[in-house]
Amino acid sequence: MNKRYNVSEIMGATKRYAAQSGRIPNIEYCMLGGVNDSDSQARQFVELMRGFRAHVNLIPYNSIGTGLSGAEYTQPSPERLDAFISILRNGGVNTHFRKRAAMMSMRRAGQLREIGLPVRH
User: Which has the closest alpha carbon to 62: 29, 36, 100, 97?
Assistant: First the structure.
């Protein structure tokens, strides 16, 4: 998407939507280990969100191996996720953490049965 629209354009459209509809938008942020999960990027995110109310869902990348581009991304460590979330929340950003990727990792490792959750394939 960012090849067609830059972050400023997307945020502008999101703010216009919120103002016109009166609804609180959701912003999905896929976190890639070592790519977009640093403290400085979290502080930039806080600045981007300053004065704007939205629900931010942080989604840790679910590693699947080498992609079509040849790049191989990883999931941020739990410590990195916690630090990123803390910076956003301390900066006043309404932040949620999507646990789906962690559950999928556990499913692959056969751990869901161990904690009593059904496994669907």
Answer: 100
User: Cα dihedral sign for 118, 66, 71, 9?
Assistant: negative
pLDDT in tens, 25-64: 999 999 999 999 999 999 999 999 999 999 999 999 887 7
- The domain covering 26-62+71-114 belongs, at the CATH homologous superfamily level, to pyruvate-formate lyase- activating enzyme (3.80.30.10)
Tokens coding 48: 């981007």
CA dihedral 37, 42, 48, 54 (to 10 degrees): 90
**What mean pLDDT do residues 4-17 have?**
91
**CA-CA distance, 121 to 110, in Å (whole number)?**
12
User: Distance between terminal CA atoms of the chain?
Assistant: 30
Predicted confidence at residue 99, as pLDDT, reads: 66
- Report the C-alpha gap between 119 and 107 in whole angstroms: 7
